[in-house]
Automatic annotation (TrEMBL):
Record-given protein name: Branched-chain amino acid transport system permease protein
GO BP, sorted A to Z: amino acid transport
Lineage: Bacteria, Pseudomonadati, Pseudomonadota, Alphaproteobacteria, Acetobacterales
Tagged with keyword Transmembrane: yes
Pfam families (alphabetical): BPD_transp_2
Transmembrane annotation, as ranges: 6-29, 36-56, 62-85, 97-122, 142-162, 191-214, 226-256, 277-296
Species, as recorded: Neoroseomonas alkaliterrae
Family statement drawn from the similarity comment of this UniProt entry: Belongs to the binding-protein-dependent transport system permease family. LivHM subfamily.
InterPro entries the UniProt entry points to: ABC_transp_permease, BCAA_transport_permease
Topology in membrane: Multi-pass membrane protein
Keyword list, A-Z: Amino-acid transport, Cell membrane, Membrane, Transmembrane, Transmembrane helix, Transport
GO molecular function: transmembrane transporter activity
Subcellular location: Cell membrane
Keyword match Transmembrane helix: yes
Length: 307
């Protein structure tokens, strides 16, 4: 692999990490504050992508689509929370897993009914077409650079919100010791609703940003959800800083692994076998990395102190 291709794949890995962070940020706070396992969080990412595609087609503008899709994703998240999730808070984890898995199936079929099963394509906004030269003779898509910048700006804003505001203080306290916060008079249910809605909007934001890069199709949130759970386990449940660092790590390992492993396997196998073995090993690398990290840091890289 050439240096140029390695650099491009590294940037692609960082961009994937940013999208994973936007999905994982709300998920880790929901799990940390309410100890609620929400397998349906990935459908918020998918809904964001579909809403962005629908609004872009209706208005002819990606920017209007982004502005309209965010409140729509938030409203969809609130609707699911009111109709389904709030009735599961007191249930055991198995009930939460089964119920939210049912929501995944329902929403996946719902988008097929509304938008069809064929993948949708969202055009790159005209303002962000083309590329920028990152090395002599190497152009990198401007839109992907904008996704990186938007994700980093969102991460900084989320850090300020969680670390420097009263609402963030309550969220951090809830993630540390929810029963104590509730005993002090804080409506923990309302706090969770706000966290859930904000997390749904972040996941929807990630979906809108992903629309011009990936195909918008039913089930697109499933793989992202799996990686998002890996992110929150590596980073530490309830930790925004941990989610950001772990998301970048997972994005790089996943992307570079898929690019490098087939070439590495060619040192030992014939090209056909190397492609198959490389693809199989690359799909395992993220989980191997998770196991290695947890062997030394069982609570994750940046665990939230409890007690």
């Amino acid at each position: 692999m050439t240096t140029q291709l390695l650099l491009v794949q590294a940037l692609n890995g960082l961009q994937l990490g940013i999208l994973l962070f936007l999905v994982a940020a709300g998920l880790t706070l929901v799990f940390g504050v309410m100890d609620f396992i929400n397998l349906a969080h990935g459908v918020q990412y998918m809904l964001g992508a579909y809403l962005g595609a629908a609004f872009a087609a209706a208005t002819g503008s990606f920017w209007w689509a982004l502005l309209l899709a965010l409140p729509a994703a938030l409203a969809a998240g609130l609707l699911l929370e009111v109709l389904v999730f709030r009735h599961l808070y007191a249930r055991d984890h198995l009930s939460q897993v089964l119920a939210t898995f049912g929501v995944i199936l329902f929403v996946n079929e719902g988008v097929k009914v509304v938008w069809g099963a064929a993948p949708l394509q969202v055009p790159v906004p005209a303002l962000l077409e083309g590329g920028i030269e990152i090395m002599p003779g190497l152009q990198y898509p401007l839109y992907r650079v904008a996704v990186l910048a938007a994700g980093i700006a969102t991460a900084l804003g989320l850090w300020w919100l969680v670390e420097r505001t009263r609402a963030g203080m309550l969220v951090r306290a809830g993630a540390t010791n929810a029963p104590m916060v509730s005993a002090l008079g804080v409506d923990i249910g309302r706090l969770f609703t706000l966290v859930f809605a904000f997390g749904a909007m972040l996941a929807g934001f990630a979906g809108v940003l992903a629309g011009p890069i990936f195909s918008v199709e039913p089930g697109m949130g499933d793989n992202v959800l799996i990686l998002a759970f890996v992110v929150i386990v590596i980073g530490g449940i309830g930790s925004i800083r941990g989610a950001f660092v772990a998301a970048l790590l997972v994005g790089l390992v996943d992307t570079l692994g898929k690019s490098l492993m087939p070439d590495l396997m060619r040192l030992f196998l014939d090209p056909s076998a190397a492609r198959q073995a490389g693809a199989a090993l690359a799909s395992m690398l993220v989980y191997v990395a998770m196991a290695a990290i947890l062997a030394f840091r069982p609570a994750g890289l940046f665990p939230v102190r409890t007690g």
